[in-house]
Write a structure and sequence with these properties.
0% strand; 16 helices; mainly alpha; single chain
Length: 335
């Protein structure tokens, strides 16, 4: 018996009956030999961590565009925080931590430079629309490894696709990540907004502070405990109605105070115009796309507008600025 098979056997002994067992995965689009050490979900997690798209997350905006300071979250640190929260809940509920980890680490791989501003910019100009959760699946199915994709299991791709608020993940592990994405970004965005001087703790509504907590540590502790307590022994992941309402109210407060705050978003208009100018340029000059993207059109028949979005959405913040300068700013004007 291989180490992997022993691990799979152990899962059946210790996991909840509602967990996703590694030896019962719906599999990959392309069959491949099993690893003798790692389960399918361990392999998926490792493939995501070693992907180029994952490495680029460290230079992509979470909320604040290229902030001055080393402690603001990036898309990478957000991803790691989601993973940490999700693994805590999965362990408490005896779910498959490896599946949770893979979904969490992969859920934002398709995010654009400049966060949701970049996403809106591409969605406005691309005739096919653009959504980061769909792009994340496209990254793992097609764009990584020069058109081969990562060949992940169905359960991981389902969790990535359905991590958004309106999503409906098929596994409990995917449902855990869906909750933890919101729990993570609401709390770390409060922390970053306070660091930026846009919010003070006293600005947060009294009812939210009373129900959830008046510090980041207390809020995380309250929300995580609520998910665990309301999901233990259940065939679905949930929060208590009162706590879920309180979290939604806090999220709405963050939209009013931070996500749509002109002070926090003062540079977004510039970022949107830049992304859209890049989109228009590469649609007019597709021959200037890197070869791997041109091959998606020539060899795979992918629509040009979609491939242009693939290229731009894969850029980091700083790389997109550099490309924009090279294309549109005369050399003599560049510092």
């Amino acid at each position: 018996m291989t180490i992997r098979e022993k691990t799979e056997e152990l899962e059946h002994q210790i996991f909840s009956p509602y967990a996703s067992f590694s030896d019962q995965s719906r599999g990959r689009d392309r069959e491949e030999p099993q690893c003798d050490i790692r389960t399918v979900y361990q392999r998926d997690r490792d493939r995501i961590i070693h992907s180029k798209a994952f490495r680029r997350l460290k230079q992509k905006t979470q909320v604040f565009l290229i902030p001055e300071g080393d402690h603001y979250r990036t898309r990478m640190t957000h991803t790691l925080e989601v993973s940490q929260l999700a693994r805590t809940i999965a362990k408490a509920l005896r779910l498959n931590e490896d599946l949770v980890d893979a979904i969490a680490l992969g859920h934002d791989l398709g995010h654009t430079p400049f966060g949701h501003a970049g996403e809106r910019a591409l969605d406005e100009v691309c005739p096919y629309g653009f959504a980061h959760y769909q792009q994340s699946v496209r990254v793992v199915e097609l764009l990584e490894k020069t058109g081969e994709g990562l060949n992940l299991t169905w359960e991981v791709r389902d969790g990535i696709l359905n991590h958004r608020t309106a999503g409906h993940p098929s596994t409990l592990e995917g449902q855990v990540v869906r909750y933890c994405d919101k729990i993570a970004y609401i709390n770390h965005d409060i922390d970053d907004a306070e660091r930026a001087g846009i919010l003070k703790e006293s600005d947060i509504p009294d009812e939210s502070r009373r129900i959830i907590g008046d510090t980041t540590r207390k809020r995380l502790n309250t929300l995580i405990h609520d998910v665990v307590e309301n999901s233990e022994g259940q065939d679905h992941i949930s929060m208590s109605p009162g706590m879920e309402t309180a979290m939604h109210d806090l999220r709405a407060f963050m939209f009013r105070s931070v996500y749509l705050n002109p002070e926090a978003k003062s540079e977004e208009g510039k970022a949107i115009r830049m992304i859209q100018e890049l989109y228009r340029y590469y649609n007019a000059h597709p021959d200037q796309l890197p070869e791997e993207y041109q091959n998606l059109m020539k060899l795979r028949g992918e629509p040009q507008e979609r491939v242009v979005c693939d290229y731009i959405s894969g850029m980091t913040d700083l790389y997109s600025i550099r490309v924009y300068k090279e294309l549109f700013v005369p050399q003599s004007w560049q510092a």
